[in-house]
Design goal:
The protein has 227 residues and is α+β, with helices and mostly antiparallel strands. The chain has one domain: Nucleoside Triphosphate Pyrophosphohydrolase (Alpha-Beta Complex). It has five helices and twelve strands. The strands form two sheets. Strands 1, 2, 3, 4, 5, 6, 7, 8 and 9 form a nine-stranded mixed beta sheet that branches. The chain has a three-stranded antiparallel beta sheet with strand order 10-11-12. β10 and β11 (185-194) form a beta hairpin. The longest helix has 13 residues, at 101-113. It is globular, with a radius of gyration of 16 Å.
């Protein structure tokens, strides 16, 4: 299990929990928020466009306290999975026929890491995000639970659990940009660094919109960032 070291705590879990409904109901940042942590260029993705044949999936952005400090649960995907192996993800997956997005997110989170749906309260939604590499459209749901869950990761899917402090995610020192070769082409990839893990791609874009919504917009492209 991996945890980060939080920066100076400025918001407690109780404070964050009280503010979330207002923040999430005040108009979402949408593609502008997602773009802050999008690779450049991002091939096959058009901001705000959802292809009609994209498969819907629900992901859970779950906040919970450790010693009063808000955290977000992330997972490192098993390296043998056919899609996005070894990457950091939010718990979630495909919605079954007739299943709501919220139920899909809760069911998948329970199957992947043992989160009990009855202990979770959904407080809002973020904007849908098309993921060209998998053909999915992610529908993030923001939720809270009052106590730190007992993790029971499914080892067929989850290599390990990351408990990411909210203050680390919104700390500018956690942001980096590197040039990677993706699909045989150089791409500038922004990411959140959590110890030895890099949170990038769709997961980083969802977290980016969330941080924008709560008043802490990430800016990995800032001119004064460390080289």
């Amino acid at each position: 299990m991996l945890t980060g070291q939080p920066a100076r705590m400025t918001v407690t879990f109780e404070e964050l929990k009280q503010r979330l409904p207002r923040w999430l109901s005040g108009g979402l940042p949408g593609p502008d928020g997602q773009l802050r942590m999008s690779p450049r260029p991002r091939f096959g993705w058009r901001p705000g466009r959802i292809p009609p044949d994209a498969r819907p999936g629900g992901v859970l952005l779950l906040l919970y306290p450790i010693g009063g400090v808000p955290h977000v649960v992330l997972t490192v995907r098993d390296r043998d999975l056919p899609q996005h192996p070894g990457q950091v993800s939010l718990p979630g997956g495909a919605a079954e026929p007739g299943e709501s997005i919220e139920n899909a997110a809760l069911r998948e989170a329970h199957e992947e890491v043992g989160i009990e749906p009855a202990a979770v309260r959904t407080v809002g939604a973020l904007s849908p995000l098309h993921v060209p590499a998998s053909g999915f459209v992610l529908h993030p749901r923001v939720a809270v639970t009052e106590v730190r869950p007992t993790w029971r990761p499914d080892r067929r899917e989850v290599a390990r659990v990351i408990e990411a402090p909210y203050d680390v995610l919104r700390d500018p020192a956690s942001l980096e940009v590197e040039t990677w070769q993706l699909g045989g082409r150089p791409v500038e990839v922004p990411f959140f660094r959590l110890s030895d893990e890099k949170v990038w791609g769709a997961t980083a874009m969802v977290l980016s919109e969330f941080l924008c919504a709560v008043g802490s917009p990430p800016d990995p492209w800032r001119a004064d960032r460390a080289k």
